[in-house]
Structures are given as C-alpha cells and as structure tokens.
Amino acid sequence: MSFFDDVKKFGRNLTDKGKDIVEITKLNSQINSEKENIKELYRKIGEQVYEDYKNSGESTYGELCGQIAEIEAKIKELSDKVLELKNASKCPSCGTEVNKQNAFCPKCGTKIAQE
Ligand SMILES: [Zn+2]
After folding, report:
1. Where are the domains of the chain?
2. Which of 27, 59, 69, 88 has the smallest number of Cβ neighbours within 10 A?
3. Average pLDDT in the 38-66 region?
4. pLDDT above 60 (res 42)
C-alpha cells in the first residue's frame, strides 16, 4: 500500500468518525427526549395517585400524598397572605381574584362577602 493510499484511508476514517459523532449526538438527543417523555408520564401517574388519595383518603403512597397535602396547605396559606397584601380575595364561586372594594365578582357576578 502506497503512502497516498494510507493518507486517503486516514482521511476517510476521519470523515466516518465525524459522521459517527453526529449520529451519536442525534441518538443521545433522542434518548434524552424519550427520557423526558417518561418523566412526564411519571408526573401524570403521581397526579393520578394523589387524585385517588384525595377522593378515597387512602393510598399505598399515603405518606407521600400526605406530604403533598401539607405543601398544598402551605401554598394556600402563602397565597392568602399575597391576597391580603393585594387587598383582594378569591370569588367563592369561580375562584377569580377580586378586589375587596368590589361588591360582586367581575367575572361571574357572585356577591363578595365584605369584612
Ligand atoms: Zn366569580
């Protein structure tokens, strides 16, 4: 084999390596995208389990569901503080944020309790 054949072969190997790298990057990106799909399904399973727990009051994952319930209570508490600072409340009927100066919900017309 001549020197020039070696050079050509070397060059082709480099090109193949380049293609491999592109292909590997593409495949890894597909793998990551599929992993994201799994995560999304995990999230949906979790939501469904928690929904069942709220409806039935029991679950194999009761302890974890209880933690979510605690966090939800904390979020409610924090949200109430925000509403208080904004001098607003939530419409008891549709949940729209209503300024306390309003006597009625601007969205659904429900009377807002005045304090
Ligand atoms: Zn309303």
Report:
1. 3-86
2. 27
3. 95
4. yes
